[in-house]
Amino acid sequence: MRVKICGLRSRAEVRAAAEAGASYVGLVFFPPSPRNMTIPDARWTLEDVPEGIARVALTVDADDETLDAIVGLERFDLLQLHGAETPERVAQVKSRYGLPVMKALGIAEPRHLGVIDSYAAVADQLLIDARPPRDATLPGGNGLAFDWRLIAGQDWDVPWMLAGGLTPENVGEAIRLTGARQVDVSSGVEERPGKKDLARMAAFVRAAHAAAVADA
Ligand SMILES: O=C(O)c1ccccc1NCC(=O)[C@H](O)[C@H](O)COP(=O)(O)O
């Protein structure tokens, strides 16, 4: 079981996520978000991440200039594209930067599953998330879950991660229903938007690992 904790905003939060057992730590580069990270702050925030933990940069329909600046920090192992990027744009980003790319896809109904294969053909990983409501300010990180039965028994040609409204309380059921081997959380381990609750991060990782063991 691999856990990603997203929307971290300080070195202390990154350290706590690593100590809790996260396999991925994510920073959000999206100015409207309460979790937004600036490029200069990201360099410092990720200065001493332990070996073996993947550092993820989350962007939303970012242009090349923004991605150049983020990748230029030489701090990231994986790019998470969380906007309306097309499969062609995913392929372009992957080839321009030579870093693995994870494409986030929001689902709410069976028809939203239809596009997943076209992204699986170009992305290194998929992040299967809740589709944001039409009036949402943020395309992700809304703490909303989708009906996990929609993807029960589904698998794709690349590794995928389950996200959307996960919490220490519900992640076990989500893993059992979907068979996810990787899970991602942000709001569900916060005291308030943009501020992580260190005890909840640890509880989340424990619950995810316990569900994976129970499933084995
Ligand atoms: O977190 C944000 O503010 C954010 C902004 C713009 C796009 C995506 C964003 N977050 C995505 C995530 O943190 C996760 O990858 C995932 O969607 C889980 O979010 P949550 O439902 O809050 O656990």
Your description of this structure?
- Keywords: Amino-acid biosynthesis, Aromatic amino acid biosynthesis, Isomerase, Tryptophan biosynthesis.
- The structure is a single chain.
- This protein is an alpha/beta fold.
- It has a single domain (2-215), classed as TIM Barrel (Alpha-Beta Barrel), CATH 3.20.20.
- Helices cover 31% and strands 21% of the residues.
- It contains seven helices and ten strands.
- The protein has helices spanning 11-20, 39-45, 64-72, 87-97, 116-120, 171-178, 198-215, and strands at residues 2-5, 24-29, 54-59, 78-81, 101-107, 125-130, 160-162, 182-185, 190-192, 195-196.
- The strands form two sheets. An eight-stranded parallel sheet has the order 7-6-5-4-3-2-1-8.
- Helix 5 (116-120) links the parallel strand 5 and strand 6 (125-130).
- The longest helix is centred in the C-terminal third of the chain and has 18 residues, at 198-215.
- It is globular, with a radius of gyration of 16 Å.
- It starts with a strand and ends with a helix.
- The mean pLDDT is 96.
- The ligand O=C(O)c1ccccc1NCC(=O)[C@H](O)[C@H](O)COP(=O)(O)O binds next to strand 6 and strand 8.
